[in-house]
Amino acid sequence: MFYWRWLRNLAEGSKTTGYPFSEDPEVVSRGGSAVVHEPLAAAGPIRRAMAIRHIDGGSCNGCESELQMLSSPDYDFSRVGFSYTPSPRHADILVVTGVITQNMADIIADVFEGMPRPKRVVALGQCALSGHVFRAAPGVLGSLEGIVPVTVEIAGCPPTPGDILKGLLLAVDAPPALRKEGAV
Amino acid sequence: MEMIWAAGQGQQWMDHILGERRRGCRLLLLAQDPAGTVWGVGRDLGTTEDAWWGIDPEGGVIRPSSAGVGEWIHQQEELAHQSVPIRWDPPEHPLRTARGKGIFRYPLGPVHADVSESLRYDLSVMGDEIVYLALRHGYKPRHIAALCAGKPVDDALALVERMTATSSFSHQWAFAMAVEQARGQRASEAVRVYRSVAQEMERLASHLGDLATLASSTGLPVAQMDYLHLKETILRWNFRLFHDRYLRGALVRGALDPVADAAAGALIAVGEQARSITRELLHTPSFLDRLVGAGKIPAGTLDFVRPVGPVGRSAGLGDDVRALWDYGVYDAVSFAVPQWPNADAYARFMVRTEEVSSSVNIIRRLLPVAPRTPPIWPAAEFSGPGRGTGVVEAPRGLLAYAVWLTSDGRQIEKLAVATPSARNWHVVPPAVANNNILQDFPIIDASFLLSVAGWDQ
């Protein structure tokens, strides 16, 4: 049975980084790349476990690959209260990746509309911020402007899991205790 | 290079192509050159020269569904959508649908649970059984080939390396190979060693990620986490060796970081741990019961599409570009090409696990001889034909590029690409609607794990 392995893993100890609360030379960060926009003031801060809904708006699957790594034992984003949710009705944060094609714009807006308040939008990766090298392609909008209000922008091609984690913490108004530790 | 067809001779074209295919020629790519001629490119075993068959732009090209050239399905579809004077001559082939009392249709996507690319699945079910599946793509095209036209080669490289992140280096290499052929250049052995190491590192990361997703789909988070940890280990080594986790810019960089001297032991350990996870999964009935017999590709589909890569090798089709044409230094290192006949999810799992071991062995042998300082390319005069092809074995299978350069050899005039995912997606619907129930769907989907970015391009 595979669960013997689980017991062995327990005995071996945690593989999870302390980043971003403490420095870890193994975790790559491009540093200082998250930009916070005017928060949804009326919505108020989120002070509980946070569910993430992801939409691919035209990515190369690099951002998706790094988002998947967040749930790996190396980053384990559930330790700070994040998880992925299959339904927009349960979501607090909408993470959008890719160049934002015309075909996906209405779908992204619909999903955002379906999320309950308070809610946040994270534009993840250089493509979602500016269209990156695909800016001139037909049918590529290159940003979320006019579609959904962006709370946090995380740059990078693709952003590293360390940078994504820091950006997500910014997006949910990380509690003062975390700020004091210099994590965000 | 032959160009013997003209307007109204579409049937002769197709008969010839099918004859070549039956003879054993591998059909690589279908593309339109800057002058408008549609070229089919194929290559025989035992040669590294490509055969080019041209058809006048006024000629009709028969739809693949009637002609049976599955290798080119995607490219024929692309050509049909371009505003060029290509005309289809379809016989009566009404779109297949499933209708009847008791049939329900589940639309799934383009937004999915968890982290996933945008693609819509329309599943038609009768009770629990899936009787039909239609895939709808085109939510995220970036028109990469069209963007490359008119760009300097370096700028085009920045675009193609972002076609699919999990096979970024394979795209860089196939593109560079096509450009080098068009310019009349040949990469030195040191360069090919370096590129082979990079490509196998990419394959390791991609396969380990795929295996993690498959473990997750069967409800085994412990195995999923173990595989993800190994994938992260490889991505971190990618960063140390090539200065990018997804090998962006690795082709231009041309040399491993000196830290490579310490890499072999860690990478061998990854291979051993992957084998250990596999061994324990093979003793886990709740895993095996879900995989064996699930998502079996029907024989007719295999004949028609001839899937490539791990999907093809798990269905008795043994093609591996590394073994067919030694574009790297694969002749110098012995490695196994796994082949399973079952064509089901279990076979696809086994092929990937065996390929992880093969890649670790290749890297282990090439690391000591891979260059630590960038090669100096001779400033050769541009003396090539101005047109070239590049073919590599990407993590998901045969990846082919064709480029046409401008007369000075510095800019891309036209670029065409055939990705393995674009081809292999066509085997997914028949495999899913093949005596499977709805609960099997996530597992079957995870056992293919093709890239949508490589389809929509």
Q: Could you describe the 3D structure shown?
A:
The complex is a heterodimer of chains A (184) and B (457). With 184 residues, chain A is α/β, with parallel strands linked by helices. Chain A has a single domain, classed as Rossmann fold (3-Layer(aba) Sandwich). Helices cover 28% and strands 14% of the residues of chain A. In chain A, strands 1-6-5-4-2-3 form a six-stranded mixed β-sheet. Chain A is globular, with a radius of gyration of 17 Å. Mean pLDDT of chain A is 83; it is low at 175-184. Chain B is an alpha+beta fold and 457 residues long. Chain B has two domains: 2-88; 144-456, Cytochrome-c3 Hydrogenase, chain B, CATH 1.10.645.10. Chain B has 19 helices and twelve strands. In chain B, strand 11 and strand 12 form a beta hairpin. In chain B, helix 7 (189-217) runs antiparallel to helix 8 (221-242) and helix 10 packs antiparallel against helix 15 (345-366). Chain B is globular, with a radius of gyration of 22 Å. Mean pLDDT of chain B is 87; it is low at 63-67 and 83-94. Classes of the chains: A alpha/beta (184), B alpha+beta (457). At the A-B interface, helix 1, strand 2, helix 2 and helix 3 of A face helix 4, helix 7, helix 8 and helix 10 of B.
Query: How many helices of chain B does DSSP assign?
Result: 19
Percent helix of chain A: 25-40%
Widest sheet, order of strands of chain A: 1-6-5-4-2-3
Q: Please state the CA-atom Rg of chain B, rounded to the nearest Å.
A: 22 Å
Overall geometric form of chain A: globular
What is the CA-CA span between the terminal residues of chain A? 41 Å
Spatial shape of chain B: globular
- Low-pLDDT parts of chain A are 175-184
Order of helices and strands of chain A: HEEHEEHEHEHH
Estimate the strand proportion of chain A: 5-15%
Low-confidence stretches of chain B: 63-67, 83-94
Features:
A: 184 residues; alpha/beta; Rossmann fold; 6 helices; disordered C terminus; B: 457 residues; alpha+beta; Cytochrome-c3 Hydrogenase, chain B; 2 domains; 19 helices
